[in-house]
Specification:
Helix content: under 10%
Strand content: 35-45%
Order of helices and strands: EEEEEEEEEEEEEE
Distance between the termini: 32 Å
Number of strands: 14
Radius of gyration: 17 Å
Strand order of the largest sheet: 1-2-3-4
Largest sheet: 4 strands, antiparallel
Oligomer: single chain
Structural class: mainly beta
């Protein structure tokens, strides 16, 4: 039979310092979250107002979240996805799903600095114009090779090299996924198997 939710409700700790809407009128809320594997216990989370935070050693008390927002982020943008390299918690890619904003950013130093990597998915470096919405991003690794996936409003795109605004994203599965809106994706490192939700 189906077990009651009470059976899984133990061993949870509330991280009180992560509350974002502190009774003001901003209506800020958490919209994306990911927790690292190596080292473990480093959650990154983003909000509907374009803020992104990191908590170091989240398993050891109620540590203070660190705001790791870049000046290049557009205020009020919606953080729709965060993906952490399974082998390196300092290597993170994230995206905003709004139109007319810079969409995809990457850090290799835990968010101290961010590089815009929208490349050919952006009409221009400021994110304005008829660029697709970026719904979800994912770092995948298989056989020692890394790839970066972007689920967009015009299909699934991939690159194996992030090179700032010179990044070249190539469409994947043109004959199966096509130009459908990709909202979610996940993969497993065991064999690189990837699932896409449209």
């Amino acid at each position: 039979g189906f077990k009651s939710l009470d059976s899984i409700s133990t061993e949870w700790d509330e991280l009180l310092k992560t509350e974002v809407d502190l009774g003001d009128t901003s209506n800020e809320r958490i919209t994306a979250i990911q927790v690292s594997q190596n080292p473990a216990n480093v959650p990154y989370y983003g909000t509907n107002l374009g803020n992104i935070y990191r908590i170091d050693n989240s398993n050891m008390g109620d540590n203070e979240p660190v705001l790791i927002k870049s000046r290049d982020f557009t205020d009020g943008s919606y953080v729709s996805s965060i993906s952490i390299d399974p082998n390196d918690a300092s290597n993170v890619i994230m995206c905003f799903s709004n139109y007319n904003v810079r969409s995809i950013f990457h850090t290799t130093n835990s968010g101290e600095t961010w590089n815009q990597v929208g490349g050919n998915l952006e009409v221009n470096e400021f994110g304005t114009g008829a660029s697709p919405a970026i719904n979800v991003v994912k770092i995948i690794e298989y056989n020692g090779k890394k790839a970066y996936l972007a689920g967009t409003s015009i299909g699934l795109y991939m690159t194996t090299e992030l090179n700032g605004m010179g990044t070249v994203w190539q469409q994947e599965a043109e004959n199966t996924i096509g130009y459908n809106n990709v909202f979610t994706l996940d993969s497993r490192s065991l064999d690189g198997y990837t699932v896409v939700g449209t």
